[in-house]
Every structure is written in C-alpha cells, then in structure tokens.
Task: inverse folding
C-alpha cells in the first residue's frame, strides 16, 4: 500500500522525518517536542520560540496575576531539558519566513534552518480594539504582560479590565484578589456570552461583585485618555471611569501571517486536515493557530491532542493517527469562582429538554441541555460535585438516567452517587481532560508506587494543564490512601495473638 511521503510523492513504506523544525514554543509547540522525543530519541529537533523564556502554562497566568504562583511555577519545561534531550532550542528568535522550495525557515537573526517536516505552533495574539489610546493599556496574554500588570498594580488604586470573556474574568479576579478595586467592562449584555446563557452570566457577575469586581455589561469603550498620573476610560454615552491601570482582554485571534506569506491556505486559522497537515504535505499546524474542520480551538486539551497525533505521524509510531475534533469543556477556577461550561449551553426549552436550578444569592446556577436523552450541553456555576459525572456523560454521549434532579444534585435519592465518591469513579472515567488521564491510570500509578498528587502528576501529567482536575485527583489519591490504611488495619486484626 502506498502512502504520501513528506515530499508529496507517492511511495511505499512509512514516512519518517530526520529533521523536524517547530516554530512556536508555547503550550502546543513544547508539548509536540516532548511527545516526539519520547517516541524517537534520534530525530533531529530544532524549536524556535519568539519569547526568550522557557515554555509556560498560559492557562495559569491568572494565578501569577493573583500572586498565588510565581512565574517559574508555571513553566512547562525546565531550561535544562533541551540540552538533556538533545533538542536545539532557539529561544527569543522568531521565524520571519518559510522557503518552501528549499524547505528552510529563515529566522530574525538571519540564520536558515532546513527541515524535512515543519510544524507551525504559532498560537494566537491578543485582539486590540480600534479604540483611541488603546496603547495605554496592557494586554493580558504573556508572562511579560503579567509582569507589566503587576508592576503597575503595586501602586494602583483602581484597575479597569476591558473584556468579559474567560481571560477578562480571570484577570479581573486575579487583580481583585490582591485587594485592588476592579471594574470589568464588557461590550456584550452578559459575561462570557460564548459559553454562558444570560442568567448564568448574571449570576457570575453577582459572584464577582461580592469578590471586589464591579461589572459593567453592555458598555462600549470609546477612548482611553491620560488623566493626571492615571487614565480615564471613556464609555459611549459620556461616562468615564478614572483608573490607574487598564488591562485589555478582548479575545485572541490565530497568528497566521507567517503561513499566509508562505502561500499556505488560511481562513480564520491555518487550514489543516485530519493529519494536521496544511496544503503543503511537509508542513503541519497545531494549536490555536490552526483551523480543523472549520473550527479554531482556543483550549489546551485540543492542542495537546493534536500534538500527539502529529508526533505519532512524524515518528511513524502510529501512521494511522488522526485528529477528528474535540468535545471541549471550558473551566474557570479562580479563587471564589468555580465554573464549567460544555457544549450547546444557550439552547432553550424550544430546542431541547432543559433542566435548570439557580440560586443567585449563593452564586449557584446549574443547567443541563438534553436532546435525544443525551447531554449536549451544561453550565455548572458554583461548587458542584456533579461536574465529573456530567463531563463524562457529555464526553461519551451516554444515555442519561431518568432522574434528572439526581444529576444536578448527587446524593439525592435516585442519583447514581458516582460524583463525590472517588472510590466509585469508574476506571474509564477521564479525570484530567487536558492530558486524557483516566481514573484507572491514576489507580495504576498508585499501585506502581505513586503515593501523592505530585507523583501522579509526574507520571501522568494530570493537573498540569488547566489545573481544574486537581481536587478530583486529590480525592482519588485520598480514597486510595484510606483504602490501603483500612486494609492494613484489617490485616493486623487478623494476625493471631
């Protein structure tokens, strides 16, 4: 059987690269490099990163802003890793052009690096609205941005965050956690409108207000002007907000300029097929810069799934590996705010069966969207022991039990009781979505000698993505520890005197 080789000609056998170049050293690029090296110790790897830092977990940048994590605590790789694993890392050296004819990338310092396979992991860039004075604000995207925000926050008396999506909410909560009064200004009529319905957005806004964040929705920023030693954020209608710090969190868009200049097909992102290949078979694209089946994913789990597929193909570990899309779950886990949203959350009773519970004063909102007896969407705002079970039902498309209330409130008569009872979580249940780690794999690590969360994370990478699964991993580990202690007690009791 013939396969398409890396140079585009049909040939027999397995296509295996000898020279891999990765452009981009963020969450997707660095994961690809580690996945490739784990499969193949010999392939020559060169990675270019525009930032001079080692790769870091962007999902946890709100922890840096809040002061609960130091910058080095969100690193994905220690700088020494590259030398230890024979990887050439060109950090702080962006790539400026791709010469497809000679299969070479040209870096900003003038060097040229040849490739057999090129992987573009360019990520995304912040959207800067066309507002007068936008350059007076600080975008919230990189560790450098965090340092600029923190430097200004030390002397600020008030902050304004523009943008009420996931990043904006995280930035606002992080700054408020430092004791800084914050106003969150959002153009849409409710927060996180891409993931939440109107009522959930309202409940989230009230929760943030209790945590020191004043929320202004349906507000259009027209200018950011100097005002003494600070700034004045002007809104349509004439209102102005005096502030010392303005943070932009108005969304992101895929970085596609390099691919477009090289003549690759670009739509919203760099267009790829199920092998994550562009229209040039020697070039793949992964992560936030790419568009697969019409979708650009902005979450870490799809990027890491894509990296694993490309690593399998490049090394020949699995020539049949394909990426077929991801069922995404958005998790927000800032201090005092817990939120999970998945699937078609904004459908109403006219479109599907909807089960809903809300308690605005307590910051609780739970909504299930059901079609053909399957869970197609859910919003869980506030502490909910049902998150794990509902995520599994959504992932698998499994039939739901008749007791819908029991799904929202595990522990009620008729509920399946799985959530909140780590001993009953089935082995096949995915605990860490970012790294696709199941409960069974965690139990296997325990049996192999991993006796705490850190050891489980080292063996499986669980908790190292968005971090929202940490409580679930801790619960399973605690349950295993209690089980073993109970077994030891029983064994001691059975020993004859």
Result:
């Amino acid at each position: 059987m013939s396969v398409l080789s890396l140079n585009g000609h049909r040939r027999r056998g397995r296509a295996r690269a000898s020279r891999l170049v990765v452009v981009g050293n963020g969450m997707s690029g660095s994961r690809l490099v580690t996945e490739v090296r784990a499969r193949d110790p010999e392939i020559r790897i060169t990675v270019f990163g525009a930032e001079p830092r080692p790769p870091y977990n962007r999902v946890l940048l709100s922890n840096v802003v809040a002061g609960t994590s130091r910058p080095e605590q969100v690193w994905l790789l220690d700088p020494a890793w590259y030398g230890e694993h024979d990887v050439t890392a060109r950090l702080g050296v962006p790539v400026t052009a791709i010469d497809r004819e000679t299969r070479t990338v040209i870096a900003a310092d003038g060097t040229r690096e040849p490739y057999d396979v090129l992987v573009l992991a360019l990520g995304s860039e912040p959207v800067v609205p066309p507002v007068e004075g936008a350059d007076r604000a600080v975008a919230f995207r990189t560790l450098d941005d965090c340092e600029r925000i923190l430097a200004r926050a030390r002397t600020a008396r008030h902050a304004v965050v523009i943008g009420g999506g996931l990043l904006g909410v995280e930035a606002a909560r992080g700054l408020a956690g430092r004791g800084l009064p914050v106003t969150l200004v959002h153009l849409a009529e409710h927060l996180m409108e891409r993931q939440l319905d109107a009522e959930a957005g309202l409940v989230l806004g009230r929760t943030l207000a209790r945590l020191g964040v004043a929320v202004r929705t349906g507000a259009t920023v027209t200018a950011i002007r100097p005002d003494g030693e600070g700034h004045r954020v002007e809104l349509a209608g004439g209102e102005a907000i005096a502030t010392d710090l303005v943070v932009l969190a108005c969304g992101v868009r895929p970085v596609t300029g390099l691919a477009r200049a090289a003549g690759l097909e670009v739509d919203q992102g760099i267009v790829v097929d199920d092998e994550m290949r562009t229209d040039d078979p020697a070039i793949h694209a992964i992560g936030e810069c790419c568009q697969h089946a019409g979708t650009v994913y902005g979450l870490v789990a799809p990027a890491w799934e894509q990296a694993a597929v490309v690593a399998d193909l490049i090394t020949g570990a699995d020539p049949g590996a394909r990426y077929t899309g991801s069922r995404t779950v958005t998790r927000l886990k800032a201090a005092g705010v817990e939120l999970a949203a998945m699937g078609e959350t904004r459908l109403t009773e006219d479109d599907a069966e909807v089960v809903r519970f809300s308690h605005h004063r307590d910051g609780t909102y739970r909504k299930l969207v059901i079609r053909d007896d399957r869970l197609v969407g859910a919003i869980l705002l506030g502490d909910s022991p049902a998150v794990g079970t509902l995520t599994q039902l959504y992932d698998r498309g499994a039939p739901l039990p008749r007791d819908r209330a029991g799904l929202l409130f595990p522990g009620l008569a008729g509920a399946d009781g799985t959530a909140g009872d780590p001993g009953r979580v089935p082995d096949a249940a995915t605990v860490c979505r970012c790294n696709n780690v199941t409960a069974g794999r965690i139990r296997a690590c325990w049996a192999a000698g991993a006796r705490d969360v850190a050891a489980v994370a080292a063996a499986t990478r669980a908790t190292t993505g968005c971090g929202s699964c940490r409580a679930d991993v801790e619960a399973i580990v605690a349950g295993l520890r209690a089980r073993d202690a109970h077994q030891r007690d029983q064994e001691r009791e059975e020993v004859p005197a």
